[in-house]
Amino acid sequence: GAISSLQRQMEIQESELRRIRSEKEILQKQLREREVQLQAVSDKFCSMTEEQRQEEIVVMMEEENRNLHQVVTEQESQLAEQGKLINELQGIINQLRAEVVNTRLHLLEQKQAQKEIQSQADALQHKALQTRVALEQITCKFERYRNKIIQATFSVEGSQDPVGELSDNEVLEAMQKIINERAEFQHILKSKGSK
């Protein structure tokens, strides 16, 4: 097993070595081609006269200037686009700030309105409590007054005690009957000349 493992590793290493040798050959070939190209340029440059060399330099400088000019133009165009984008973003930021201010004002107004509503609700609750207390007092007084009326009405001589609980109408009818009887009795007495 160890030998098989070593053989596999050796095969892998040999394969890697072949790949590296192949790459080395390709690189050496490319290097020879570059050397040939460089030598050709060097020979051409050496064979030029001083005037040709200057012309070549001028051409190269003009080409470089054109490239630089193109780069500058592109940069200016990008700068203009960025400036436009910055202006748009600044406008959006200003709009958002205005919306934030309006929202804060709206929230303050809502808080103020909520405080006023709460104050009104507290006042109404207090008034409802006072009304409930007053109603309880009036109900209590009314019950006492009603009991007194019932007691006075049915304590008259000849009247019968009520059966069960009386309604307000029944109390009023009994009271009205007594008032009518007394008025009639008083009328009879006056007609007879009695005080």
UniProtKB/TrEMBL annotation:
Q: Which residues form a coiled coil?
A: 3-44, 79-127
Write down the InterPro entries for this protein, in alphabetical order: CC-FHA_domain
Answer whether the UniProt record assigns the keyword Thylakoid to this protein.
no
Q: Which UniProt keywords apply?
A: Coiled coil
Cleavable signal peptide: none
By what name is this protein known? CCD27 protein
Q: Can you name the source organism? A: Sinosuthora webbiana
Native organism taxonomy: Eukaryota, Metazoa, Chordata, Craniata, Vertebrata
